[in-house]
Give the backbone structure.
Amino acid sequence: MTRLDENINNQTGSTQTKLNPLEKSLLAAITSSDKIGDFYMMFKDSEILVLGQGREEKPDAFYLRYIEYENQVTIPVFSSLFALKQYIDQESSYSAISVQELLAIADPSASLLLNPGTTLTKLFVKKELEMLRTGEIIRLFQGK
């Protein structure tokens, strides 16, 4: 059985893959269930990359790109520029945004897909995102 970190190394062609702290936390949560709460806390406080573009007539407005994934309206999000480049095959507009800001502006019926097209992917379903918005998921894991 191939280890997940070996798969990541194979994808990047590197034996010294440079995972950022969020990616390391996700990898730890995937391999050890007692690290899931740590991942949620780090994710909630992270800045991520989203596909989309600003609006010229309203500089504070932003168009998010939604996709369909497993029959759900989903927002692809990325923990790093490397992960984003694995997903897109052409030049696309993207922006950095805090997870909390994204949760505030995104369609509440949408899911989030972290790092689609990579080995280190995580789908956040609607209920999970609602629990992130309210902090309930953090309290749930802090109680363990």
